[in-house]
Amino acid sequence: MNRFENKIALITGSSQGIGAACALRLASEGADIILNGRTFDERGEKLIKQINDMSRRVTFLAADVSTSANVVKLVNDAIQVYGTLDILVNNAGVEKNHSFWDVTEEEYDFVMDTNLKGVFFGIQAFVKFCMAQKRSGVVVNMSSVHEEIIFPHFAAYCASKGGLKMLTRNLATELAPLNIRINNVAPGAISTPINQKLLQNPEQLNNLLKNIPLKKLGKPEDVAAVVSFLASDDAAYVTGSTYFVDGGLTYHYEEQ
What we know:
This protein has eight helices and seven strands, in the order E-H-E-H-E-H-E-H-E-H-E-H-H-H-E. The chain is an alpha/beta fold. The protein has a seven-stranded parallel beta sheet, with helices on both faces.
C-alpha cells in the first residue's frame, strides 16, 4: 500500500533503532526519505541500500539537532533535497542516568536541548516552510511513556518529555488553522541498541516484564507502525494526541 506516494519525510535520529524502523516503514509505504544522524557511518549506508532496494529516493543529512541553528539548517537542507517536505518525524533523543543531586548543568542542557529545544525549532522551521508554500504538513514527535510516568534518576529526561507533551498539545491548536497536524508517540520498553544492558540482565529484564501486561518488550517496528498511521491521511482527524506503544505499561496497576 503506497499511502505516502509522492510524500517526502525527514526522520531525525534515524541511523538505528526506532528512527531507522520509521524510515523503513514510511519508505515501504511509498515515501522518499531524508535520514539524519550526528555522523554518516555504516548504519546509514545500510539503510540507504535497504530504501533504494524499495525503489525509493533517500538522502542522509548529518546534523546534531541539539542546537537550534543546526536543526533549522537540517530542515531547510531537507526541503532543498527534493524541493519539498511533507512529514517531519522528530525521533532524535538522548537520556542521562544520574541521581538528581548529581546532574550537571552541561548534562541537563544536553538532554533538554536535544529532546525539546531542537524539536521546538525544527518544527518552527517546518511550519514556516508550510506557511510560505500554503501547504499542509504533519509532525510526529517521539516522546516516551515518561511524559506521563516517573523515572527516578532521569529527571532531565522526564522533564524534556513532559515539556514535549505540552508543546504538542499547544501546537495542535495553534497550527490547526494552517492544516498542520502534530502528535506524539510514546514508546515504553522497546528492544533497541540503547537497551542492550537491560537485555543482557535476565533478573532486571524479568522485573520489568512483570510490570508490562503483555509480558514482552516491544520492537522498533511496533512503534514505526503507529508513526506511519499518524503521518498518514488515515489519521486526518487526529491532532494533539499521544499514542502509547507500551504493552499496557503506563496505566498498569495490579493488586498483589
